[in-house]
Amino acid sequence: MSKALLLLGSPRNTSVSRMLGETLLAGLAKRGWESQTLQLTGLLEAQEGRARLAGEFLGADLVILASPVYVDAPPAPVVHALEFLAGNPASPARDGAGPLPEARDASPGARPRHFAAVFTCGFPEASHTDICLDACRLFARDAELAWAGGLGVGGAGALDPRGLGRRSGMTANLRSALELAAASLAVGGDIPAEARRLAAKPFVPRWLYIPMAEIGWLAQAFKRGALFKLDGTPFRKS
Amino acid sequence: MRTVLLDGTPPGNDACRQGLDALRRAVSDAGHPLECFSLFELPMAPCRGCFACWTATPGRCPVPDAAEVVARAVINSELTVVFSPLPFGVWNHVVKKALDRMICLVSPHFVAAGLTRHRKRYPVYPAFLGVGWLPGPDPEAQAVFARLVEHNAYNLCVPAWRAVVLTGEKPWAASREVCRAALGALEHPDRAGHATGPAGGIGCARPENPDQSERSRR
């Protein structure tokens, strides 16, 4: 039975990126795949976590990273994990040892191991995820994995992290994208261009998304007693 | 120019440290007073994605560690220089940890002109110099890095920016020269224009909408 590993980049226990990653896993499970999920935040701090990450990574036929975009790139714990897995010199955890040696299987007929990614961002444009997906492509190159492509999803603030079915009309394109991606990944293919296109389609137009997001910030600030301090400049030298 | 350097040099990587040394010498040659943060030595937790720095304690992350000292120094500088090896064309994890914790420097509100970004929190932001280090030339990683710095500059609302990549096989003096040229362009942003700099540097006087500049490059 083929095995998929889902790596979660969000530090939060419930997140849109986790929900999208799990939806992909469900699509693979329907096709007979088994799976494992690891949350990356804090995982590399202990030897046990590093061993677990390396073990699960080496045992997977397909590795999927699902993560939000933080400041134009993957969040720090994601970069750390990718450095570790690629044996990058920037990661002292493995002392620049190169790709995990067991990851190389040059035997004739060996199935290539694949890497795919799903990135979400809170800006309405999916193009904010492009740099993250390119970095993942370079990770796959350095870790000697086959890059199966990625999905970039903008306007993630409009999604419910509890599931895509909860706003089913709005998420029809994204559900189709994930289904197309899962079907292709399950047979060792790449994420199709049509899936990427559907995932990048806005759920709501920008003129509607931005006021909704602004109301969200104001509501959150109201609950936290900071509504009238939102524009504070605490670090400004007087 | 009051300069803050965020240094992501990993301990024990002497080749990368040479790049850092060339950069520091160039800053010194330019006569800029320098405050340096060696990020591998600073206790700093990763961003936990709670948005408290926007909606609970606006402008300040509630996690009490070195990130606040770094963010305060950055916003009160005239030039912020970030130096890091480039795993997969992006900042390494320690630099990324510091940058992730700096979202408190912008406002949660959106600006919808061009590619959406967050509104400024402060009236003035420092110029931004991104310096990446690679053991050898890697055009794909260099291209990703150039776009990353461009996006960082756009989203951090900086007045001028420049990106350069130093490579391990180049002599130290050449690396220093690349850094000097980039610093010179940032000192005179009106003369920087939008140009390809020496040895792989790119830059812009004012951050453009990255979507537009990507289209114009195609």
Folded structure, characterized:
The complex is a heterodimer of chains A (238) and B (218). Chain A has a five-stranded parallel β-sheet with strand order 2-1-3-4-5, sandwiched between helices. Chain A contains seven helices and five strands; from the N terminus they run E-H-E-H-E-H-E-H-E-H-H-H. Chain A starts with a strand and ends in a 15-residue tail after the last helix. In chain A, helix 4 (130-142) links the parallel strand 4 (114-120) and strand 5. Chain A is 39% helix and 14% strand. Chain A is of the alpha/beta class. Chain A has two domains: 3-204, Rossmann fold (3-Layer(aba) Sandwich); 205-238, no CATH class. In chain A, helix 5 runs antiparallel to helix 6. The relative contact order of chain A is 0.14. By secondary structure, chain B is α/β, with parallel strands linked by helices. Chain B has one domain (3-217): Flavodoxin domain (Rossmann fold), CATH 3.40.50. Helices cover 38% and strands 22% of the residues of chain B. Chain B has helices at residues 14-29, 52-55, 66-75, 93-100, 139-155, 172-187, 189-192, 210-217, and strands at residues 3-7, 34-38, 79-85, 106-111, 117-120, 127-134, 161-167, 195-196, 202-204. In chain B, the strands form two sheets. Chain B has a seven-stranded mixed β-sheet, with helices on both faces. A two-stranded antiparallel ribbon of chain B has the order 4-5. In chain B, helix 1 packs across helix 6 (172-187). Chain B is globular and about 50 Å long. Residues 192-200 of chain B have low confidence and may be disordered. Chains A and B meet through helix 3, helix 4 and helix 7 of A and helix 2, helix 3, helix 4, strand 4 and helix 5 of B.
